[in-house]
Amino acid sequence: AVLLLSCVPTCGIAGARADEASSGEERPVWETIEVCPIPNEDSPGECRPSVSCAAYTKINDVSSAASVERISFIKQIQCNGTDNVPYVCCPRGSSSYVQPFMNETASHKNRIASRLAFDPDTCGLQSYMAKIRGGTLAEIDEFPWMAMLLYERENQPLTQACGGSLISRTYVVTAAHCVTGRNVENSNGKLKYVRLREYNVHTDPDCVVENDVKDCSEDKLDLPPQEIIAHPDYNPSTQRNDIALIRIEQTPPYSDFLRAICLPTRNVDSLVVPGQKLSVSGWGRTDMFQEKLGPNALSPIKLKLSLPYMERDRCTKTFRPWNYMLTEGQLCAGGEKAKDTCAGDSGSPLMNFDIKRG
Predict the structure, then answer these.
(1) Active-site amino acid positions
(2) Deepest of 132, 302, 349, 352, by most Cβ within 10 A of its Cβ?
């Protein structure tokens, strides 16, 4: 994967509201229903928008995030839909799943992780476990360069407010507005740690169950910032040059769960074409858990989303009512209904998958 843009200003990755999922032109039912397998059940289900599946609503709450077996089940029932909302495999003729969890055996996945020093030839690589399924939950070893920024206020627990990308064993790139300026400590607190190797904030180590095999990541890694270097021409009023580096102590050797992302080696505009799918990831605000945590809930689990690249002329016209003009080095992605990044994802990367690198 190649980082195209790091300073995502307002980053929610997740589902749509029920009214959004039901809107749009009606199509014959035989054109919209896809049969799909459900773990632990003999009968197949139907691939539907998650908001219209009562069985999914019952099991998808924030308490499930701490259950390895439940999260693993939710990952397995994600399916590819036709609309811009999350789809899940929903049981036919029933409002409940028979056994909504994945069984765990004594087996553990045997990972022979490559542990390499930084090398342009190894950046951006992911293990073979990193599969795109079209859902919103990332794989446990997907995007191993993702960083979570944790902030501290006096007599309060650490809070997550921004993201970032590991670009070497000693540097993370993020948005300047996440680490500098008068409003940072007022709104977020003092930057305390850069967290790496995170997947599920409720568990440590993080584990999932796939094919009856338990797969666990390495322990999360909290590193204090050694130095913060904001772009010298960063303008908080216009958000120009909203990018910064965080120097951290040297990370452990790279593995399936820790690796630097590649930086573009040529003009970004030459790497993408209109409509090309780009990726975003993070733990930002989502409506996935809003029923339990409220509308401003941050996701406890790493999420992912694909967004189409938008050509500069179209993007400029879109932002014209707000008097915002793109500068050199900026690009646009998105424009699809109910799919975007949100608060809490600022500083997270916009990524391009280079199929030649694997």
Answers:
(1) 177, 242, 346
(2) 349
